[in-house]
TrEMBL record:
This is Serpin peptidase inhibitor, clade E (nexin, plasminogen activator inhibitor type 1), member 2. InterPro entries: Serpin_dom (IPR023796), Serpin_fam (IPR000215), Serpin_sf (IPR036186), Serpin_sf_1 (IPR042178), Serpin_sf_2 (IPR042185). Residues 1-23 form the signal peptide. It comes from Salmo trutta (Brown trout). Transmembrane segments: none annotated. The lineage of its organism: Eukaryota, Metazoa, Chordata, Craniata, Vertebrata.
Amino acid sequence: MGLPSLLCMCMLVTLGGHRGVISQAPSTPSYGERGSDLGLQVFQQVARSRPQENVVLSPHGVASILGMLLPGAHGETRRQLLTALRYKKNGPYKMLRKLHKTLTAKSNQDIVTIANAMFSQQGFPMEEAFMSSNRANFQCESRTLDFTDTQAAAATINIWVNNQTKGHIPTLVKADMLDGDLTRLVAVNAIYFKGLWKSRFQTENTKMRTFNAGDGNSYKVSMMSQLSVFNIGLASTPQGLNYKVIELPYHGNSISMLIALPSEEDTPLGDVIPHINTATVQSWTKLLHHRKVRLLLPKFTAEAEVDLQASLSALGITDIFDEDKADFRHLSTEPVYISKALQKAKIEINEDGTKAAAVTSEWLLVKSFCFCLYLV
């Protein structure tokens, strides 16, 4: 059905030691724009590879986990990260702290929770500067585990993930994803979002209706309905494809859901997705205007697990996955590389939320659509 966005998300990066090298001892765009652009590029890569599936992804989560690795990288490994994230050499952390502060502001404390953690092998030597940078910029906590007991290590990480996502993602790591001999560090970013609609849907108006999915089939789904005033607009791609945009604000007015869907019935959503980047999303907010519309929105839960290695590699981030080329000398004196980059996300949309007079028109989201959460 093609429903990209986020209720709660976890992302994990697993660093392994090199084979045979086993430790013997236990004015430019803002950071948010840069990070989201990389994340949206990853989303486009994933959506292209899964044209018939729901895609649920957090762009901020992708940028955050790579940002956590950045102070440990050196040479070509660091250059690739800087280029993809579009950071200047002297670091993004002033803007990063500002973005984190905005997302976790008191006004959002009941809406957004962001947590970061690094689980390292007992005795694994990590550079203090690397750990200090992540504590200061990501409020990242550090814990030690014994990865030789893969079952217990996976259970510990999953308990942390389950707690941070309020039970929505109970399992992120499986024991067979860990190598008892080589796993040195697991970095995890978790985001939990629970937004209540500013204008909620009445449950008595929810009825079974037909939804036309991206796979070409039609399904009967629970469709929520309300007649209200929303910000709506009409946008177009550089190729001249028109699509509609509608804004659904959450309670508190600091975060909104922006929904885009093709104007023409025969235009596939996949033709619009490559056009979406942070500049596009920001342009939407300038063309929206108040109109009273009847909105029909599917009530649904979607989740997805994405292995990010192929998508990140396609965007030029390759050395971090290469056992021979990865250079994380500022992370540890022991050579390491990334053996797994995984994101797991889930979103739930219901009448309550996500866990001016004008001419009345119909706004029917009865076919595949794309949406994102936008910080106003």
